[in-house]
Each structure stands twice: as C-alpha cells, then as structure tokens.
Write a structure and sequence with these properties.
The chain is of the alpha+beta class. The strands form 2 sheets. Strands 4, 5, 6, 7, 8, 9, 10, 11 and 12 form a 9-stranded mixed beta sheet that branches. The longest helix is centred in the last third of the chain and has 14 residues. The termini are far apart. The structure holds zinc ion (ZN). Zinc ion binds next to loops. The site of zinc ion has 8 residues, from loops.
C-alpha cells in the first residue's frame, strides 16, 4: 500500500502521531492538523453459478496477470456491496445479475493487505460470458475444468473447492475468515433456507 507523505489539504509533510485515546499511529499534518486516516479497502465479488459451473475470469491486469479468479474488485463510493458486486461481474464478464438475488458467501479479513473481501453467490441462466477490458477471458468451469494451477490469489483454491462441494450437496454456508501472514482461520455458518434471507429485506421496495 502506498503511503501518503504530504498533507492532502495544505501540502505540509505528514508525520506519525499517536492520537489521544487511540492505539496505533495516525498520519497527521502538523500545520493544519488534518489526519490522514488509513483503513482497509473493501473488495466485492460474486461466485456466479450456472448448474454445476462457476464463472471465472482470466485477469488482463496486474496483480496476477493471466491468472484466474471469480469476478471481483474494489467497492466504489455511493455503491452498496451488492451493486458493486453486480457491476464487477458485468464489467469483467458481461453477465447481468439482479442485486437482490445475491446471497452472502465469504467475508474475509485480509489483514496483511489491508483489505476486506466480500464474496456473494448468485445463480444465472447465462452461459455465454464475454470478457471485459480487465479480463483476457471469462468462462464457466465445472470442478474438473478449473485451471487449478493458475489461480490468482492465495486462499482462492480452498474457497472454490468448498463452493463446488456446496453446489454438489445443495447445502451452503456463509464463511467468515481471517488470513494473517500464514495463519488462516475460518468459521462457517450454514444457511438453512435461501428464500428466508430474501424475505428478510427491510424497508420499502
Ligand atoms: Zn495540512
């Protein structure tokens, strides 16, 4: 992660301080007292499922150029998690999804890269994805067809294998995990009824 060295407001050199009542250090400006907060970025994506196949794209950009991953990317301002995931899927694979059809699947704290990774799942009848500008290819893969030795990110293999098992058994969970240096910890919460989650939407529609 790049570090900001100069104040975004007045251009004075920033320095690290320990703020009152807080643990850890903040980057602060000694001139205008602006504090440059550094917080994890949110990555959203979706496991798009067609029958027993999962949609993946081959990355046309760094990091991991040429390697495969389910569509995902940084959440933008003004977007809900679902909207962000739907946008990433559309941009990278051309597949259109209804945001309200998305079901939470994986929530991972990537401590070392200062990211939170939120992966939904959704079913689609679409079978002809089209790669967007950030992808070389977009394809649906059955378990035996996945390019297992060309996956983009650490931890991805484990989640894909889990997802294929869940698809086969028609029993899904929400997986909450934490990856820190070489340590991996996961808790799984079975979802007993997908439709109940949909009915739980609050507010007007
Ligand atoms: Zn300043």
């Amino acid at each position: 992660v790049d570090e900001v060295n100069y104040c975004l407001r007045c251009g004075t050199k920033l320095h690290r301080i320990t703020a009152l009542n807080e643990t850890g250090q903040r980057l602060a400006c000694s001139s205008c007292h602006f504090i440059h907060y550094e917080n994890p970025k949110i990555i959203v994506g979706c496991l798009v499922i067609n029958g027993n196949r999962i949609l993946m794209c081959q990355r046309a950009i760094e990091p991991s150029h040429g390697l495969w991953t389910p569509p995902a990317g940084f959440l933008e301002n003004q977007e809900s998690l679902e909207m962000g995931a739907v946008r990433e899927v559309r941009e990278e694979t051309g597949v259109l999804l209804d945001p309200e059809s998305l079901i939470p699947h994986v929530i991972t704290s990537l401590i070392d890269c200062q990211q939170v990774y939120i992966l939904f799942r959704a079913n689609t009848g679409s079978s002809t994805p089209a790669a967007g500008p950030e992808s070389l290819k977009a394809e649906f893969f059955a378990r035996s067809e996945v390019p297992w030795d060309q996956l983009a990110f650490r931890g991805m293999r484990q989640y894909l294998e889990l997802a294929f098992e869940e698809i086969q058994n028609e029993r899904f969970s929400i997986h909450v995990s934490k990856i820190e240096s070489t340590r991996f910890r996961r808790r799984s919460f079975p979802v007993s009824d997908d439709n109940r989650a949909k009915a739980g939407f609050l507010g007007s529609s």
